[in-house]
Amino acid sequence: MRVDVVTIFGEYLQPLSLSLIGRARSQGLLDLRVRDLREHTHDRHRTVDDTPYGGGAGLLMKPEPWGEALDAVLDDPPPGAREEGPVLLVPGPAGEVFTQRTAVELAAEPWLVFACGRYEGIDARVAEHYATRVRVREVSLGDYVLNGGEVAVLVVVEAVARLLPGVVGNAASLTEESHAAEHDGLLEHPSYTKPASWRGLDVPPVLAGGHHGQVARWRRDQALRRTARRRPDLLARLPVERTDPADRAVLAEEGWVPGDDGRFRPTPAAVAD
Ligand code: SAM
Q: Are 40 and 75 in contact (CB under 8 A)?
């Protein structure tokens, strides 16, 4: 996969040289190129910002450097790029929330380009213009405001790159994690390693019993209970048809019952709690 990042703070992306992502880069699985937006300015101060039309606090990034920088990236496609070009990712708090599903979709792409905003963001015409040329996705890490898009690049690249074949040693571990579609989008069960007893806390005996069926059942129960308690929004998306009678018994204990729409809903008593 090729990833181009346009930013005024390239140093911010240095962590992408470390650990599994760094190794993926040195193995040629990920070709990550950081490009300096200021290379596309033409004044002595290398200006990338200006005051917003209509007034208001803060400064906005000017469209001209972005146009030059993104045109230069698009003029340099990797071998195997799709005819429709890259996906252009524009981080911002007003975008679609980035989830594991987004990561899976992006991991199927050969080429991603990131436009990192700073100040109050990028002049809106930049995304509007490039939407006529490539697929633009404005993505948000969540409902809070950061200072710049570089942190979003760290998050998105890490979540996407670990899904690329060969990046994570044991591919099975990817499908057993929280939010994995193969795991019905549930949270993962709690996990333990040795010693069996630590500070008066014992590992649940079923995990040391060696009975694979019982371990699987215990893990599934824990995943359902955890999701019901911590993330009811995720549980509400679980199709009833993806559950068995034992799942439904656990969920009933947690106060969730099948609804007419094929999804679970909290019982009135659970909502009152
Ligand atoms: N004025 C913008 C708004 O209210 O929607 C916020 C701009 S923010 C201060 C500056 C930059 O930080 C954004 O252009 C974006 O690159 C990044 N950013 C801020 N919050 C973000 C979030 N929740 N997710 C992803 N990127 C974010």
A: no
Cβ–Cβ < 8 Å for 130, 136: yes
> Per-residue pLDDT tens for 214-223?
999 999 999 9
pTM: 0.95
Per the structure block, which two tokens stand in for 229?
Answer: 């308690």
Single-letter amino acid, residue 60: L
Cβ contact 250:224 at 8 Å: yes
Question: Candidates 146, 150, 155: which one to mutate for ligand 1, based on the most atoms within 8 Å of Cβ?
Answer: 146
Residues 6+ apart with CB under 8 A from 107: 1, 160, 161, 163, 164
Determine whether the shortest distance from the Cβ of 126 to ligand 1 is under 6 A. Answer: no
How many angstroms separate the alpha carbon of residue 135 from the centre of ligand 1?
20
Q: Please work out whether the CB of residue 57 comes within 6 Å of at least one atom of ligand 1.
A: no
Write the residue with the smallest CA distance to atom 22 of ligand 1: 93
CB 84 within 8 A of CB 23: no
Q: What tens digit of pLDDT does each residue of 229-244 get? A: 999 999 999 999 999 9
Q: List pLDDT tens digits, range 160-188.
A: 999 999 999 888 888 888 999 988 999 99
15-28: per-residue pLDDT in tens?
999 999 999 999 99
